[in-house]
Amino acid sequence: MCGIVGILGQQDVASSLVDALKRLEYRGYDSAGIATVNAGALDRRRAEGKLRNLEEKLKLTPLHGTSGIGHTRWATHGRPVERNAHPHATDRVSVVHNGIIENFRELREELEATGVVFESDTDTEVVAQLLTQTLGHINDPVKAVEAVLPRLRGAFALGMLFAGEDDLLIGARQGAPLAIGYGEGEMYLGSDALALAPFTDQISYLDDGDWVVLTRKGASIFDAANKPVKRAKVHSAAGAYSIDKGNHRHFMMKEIHEQPEVVGRTLAHYLDMRQGEVALPDGCKVDFSQVDRLTIAACGTAFYSGLVAKYWFERFARLNVDIDIASEFRYREAPLTDKGLALFISQSGETADTLAALRYAKAEGLKVLAVVNVPTSTIARESDYQAPTLAGPEIGVASTKAFTCQMTVLACLAIAAGRQRGVLSREDEKRLIGELMAVPALMAQALKQAGAVKKLAHDLSRVKDVLFLGRGTSYPMALEGALKLKELSYIHAEGYAAGELKHGPIALIDEDMPVIVIAPRDNIYEKTISNMHEVAARGGRIILITDQQGIEEADMPDAATIAMQAMPSDFAAIVYAVPIQFLSYYAAVALGTDVDQPRNLAKSVTVE
Ligand code: F6R
After folding, report:
1. One fold for both 3-240 and 448-592?
2. 603 assigned to active site
């Protein structure tokens, strides 16, 4: 979490730092700040809350200087107040940090024992104080950083600026991403290439343990053993993506509407449409016939896409699937087999829990396949096979288009696995591909339900608790529906397997409890509808999502309904994601919450 940026420029850098922070705000947004070196002295401006508060402050008291660093924060240590906002500084050094310094308490005690007085509650300030103390003995910023870095434990990316050094910016990476950008007589540092896209498309990514000394002439990179190393300069495509809301009020709405296009683009990458078969692209040509168990781990919405995929891999490929939340998988000491394949799913490719699970699986000798949206991310780079989702940058904190693209890629992989393992015939594969190819158009139809869903969401915004029910692949969709509603509207919601309700949660049902039933007409539709009637018999208010025939067959005139197009059920989960996303979006809008940046969250969760 947190986004960092650094610039060695030719003109005042304050406004460029703020522009870069706008592109990093998805990584955290509870406070922000920038620092510059101006006439040799360090100065900074910080503000609690969103970036616009910092902008206001900068209008009143501008900050000059051609070298600077910036930060947008997701609090880990210390409340999100100005005192804890980055950059953390002394008169000699200013520091921005993403991640956690795990041994900060011990370092802080050590520094306090020598008389150092801290002004914040953060872990980051120890870096500024330690550097300042070290500069007292070694009056050389580069040597001071070299001495301090081995003392820091944890996961971090750092940007460091020094008083009296207008042509020096030092960065360090240990477990949190950091990119270097090359300009014309200018140099940049940033948490990702997207932040640097307005300035340059020439990027190098630091490896774990690397640190870098930037001057306007270029970058000197060192590894953890302080040996000079070269890291490839690559062309970043991040600038090709416009980061604006188009005609929409929120990024989330724009991203919901992009889904037919990006799911179509993703399909085109994985399918030979003329032959009606999956053609796995270079980089992810996995031989599933040699795999005896698939172990999936991911977090949040990405985990739910994996849960949907479990049904597909088991049904289409008769492949054993274990699935776990990444933060649990890593510590439960699951026995893994030599012929197993580990599959990790992540939009950002930087989620700390997923990355830790990946490294655990690799250390256990498993081959690793990653479904990721950011191809240059750590998870993508550390995997044996990369299966990209072509969703483009997702800015809304709640995942929408990345989720449906994840399911799309996973569907293609499951079909490929089915063919390779001799489970699917040529005809089966053709039929499934035909169904998949219809998904973008069905999603476009589903988008037309916005108005109808808005009315229902308005009613939903007045309640305190909501249940989502589904069976089969609609069960993970029920979980996803509940997660989306919670994170966006702050309404308490739970997702349940419809058949499980009678084993306890049905006790919650009364006339105040809306129950959203996700029931595409599949082989278990009738069972889901029976469960729905059990709820209705106890006074629960039903919102039924199915097609017109499903609505008629359900025979429940009192139920509110969202009518979907009729469709084969195999990949209905991808299409049914749309009304579920609309429900939480419109409930949030009705309640006036911050749709794109819900409270307490960040898009890229780089702490465990
Ligand atoms: C919810 C949401 C999160 C993410 C989760 C994993 O809308 O977006 O639950 O899915 O934090 O993030 P990635 O996919 O970046 O690993």
Report:
1. no
2. yes
Atom of ligand 1 nearest to the CA of 398: 7
Give residue 242's pLDDT. 65
Query: What's the topology of domain 448-592?
Result: Rossmann fold (3.40.50)
Q: Does ligand 1 come within 6 angstroms of the Cβ of 177?
A: no
The mean pLDDT of 193-213, rounded to a whole number, is 93
pLDDT of residue 607: 66
User: Which bin fits 398, alpha (ψ -120 to 50), beta or left (φ > 0)?
Assistant: beta
| pLDDT, mean of residues 125-154 | 96
Q: Cite the DSSP H helix spans in 385-449.
A: 401-420, 426-437, 439-447
Superfamily the domain 250-447 falls into: Glucose-6-phosphate isomerase like protein; domain 1 (3.40.50.10490)
Question: Does residue 28 surpass a pLDDT of 90?
Answer: no
Ligand 1, closest atom to CA 403?
10
For ligand 1, whether the C-beta of 302 sits within 6 Å is yes
Indicate the pLDDT class of residue 338, thresholds 50, 70 and 90.
Answer: confident
- For the chain, the domains span 3-240, 250-447, 448-592
Residue 602 CA, ligand 1 centroid: distance in Å: 9
**Tokens of residue 170, six digits:** 């030092």
Question: Among 411, 379, 291, 376, which residue's Cα sits nearest to residue 339?
Answer: 291
| 598 Cβ inside 6 Å of ligand 1 | no
Residue 331 has pLDDT above 90, yes or no: no
pTM surpassing 0.90? no
Q: Which CATH class is domain 3-240?
A: alpha beta
Cα 304 to middle of ligand 1, angstroms: 10
Is residue 284 flagged as an active site residue? no
Would you state the structure tokens that stand for residue 96, as one six-digit string? 């921005």
**Cβ-Cβ contacts under 8 Å for 476 (sequence gap 6 or more):** 304, 305, 307, 308, 470, 573
Question: What is d(CA 305, CA 311) in angstroms, rounded to the nearest whole number?
Answer: 10
Quote the percentage of the chain above a pLDDT of 70: 99
* 80, two tokens: 């999100």
Residues forming a β-bridge with 211? 172, 222
